[in-house]
Amino acid sequence: MDYAEAVEKAPPGWRHFGIHDVARLPDDVRTRELSRIPSGEPDDRVVRALFWTLVYHLEPERWDELARYEPIHPAVIEALPLDVEMALDVGAGSGRLTRHLVDRSREVVAVEPSRGLRAILSRRLPTVRVLDGWADALPLDEGSCHLTTACGALGPEPAILAELRRVTAPGGWMALINPEQPEWFAAHGWRRMTAPPVPVPPHPRWIDEFFGPPEPPRDLLTMQVGG
Ligand SMILES: C[S@@+](CC[C@H](N)C(=O)[O-])C[C@H]1O[C@@H](n2cnc3c(N)ncnc32)[C@H](O)[C@@H]1O
Questions:
Q1: Which of 9, 66, 114 has most ligand 1 atoms within 8 Å of its beta carbon, as the pocket-test mutant?
Q2: Ligand 1, atom 1: nearest CA belongs to which residue?
Q3: Level-2 CATH architecture, domain 71-224
Q4: Given strand 129-131, what is the order of strands in its sheet?
Q5: Is the pLDDT confidence value at 153 over 90?
């Protein structure tokens, strides 16, 4: 999502944060995120643009609670390859997708830049190897993954796409659930499957007030890497 779109689409909970919270982000995260923001922008626009980053890094339990009420559509999970040697979840959060990979793979690696979300994921899924990292510089060897996944974390940035391909073994699969700009992927050779909408589970009112209405992921884009 580009800067202007992130400002415009910030959920109502952005008002919970102030510019002093941006200063509380880990140094590497703050530097990385601020580099995308034009200089001289007013504080409220900066906070709006960084809403999701502030949640992931400063209040990870809020994201975890939202994820509980936005379960991935079962048809999307069913469409993922079974019986995989090594599966990777990029931007794994607190493990909403990762837990399904555990059932389908002998080994699972999760890459996630938020320390708080990594802690929740490790506690919940102790067999998963959890690594700090970013999608455009994955801390994994070339061709080491047979199923490379992400849910809600990525868009079609060239550096990210190159990394997903690099770490995926020949014959392996890349599978992105609710990526940004799904039309871009569909127009570039990825197979798209959209499951029908399902009712959102009953959830506390603060979720809507903070994040807006929950939208469980139901869009799957897949591509097999040539052998
Ligand atoms: C919408 S959440 C989805 C989390 C998890 N995949 C799920 O489905 O519950 C996006 C996640 O991607 C992570 N993230 C954001 N930008 C990233 C990047 N460039 N590389 C890797 N992870 C990223 C965030 O820290 C956050 O945990």
A1: 114
A2: 152
A3: 3-Layer(aba) Sandwich (3.40)
A4: 129-131, 105-111, 84-90, 145-151, 168-177, 219-224, 191-194
A5: no
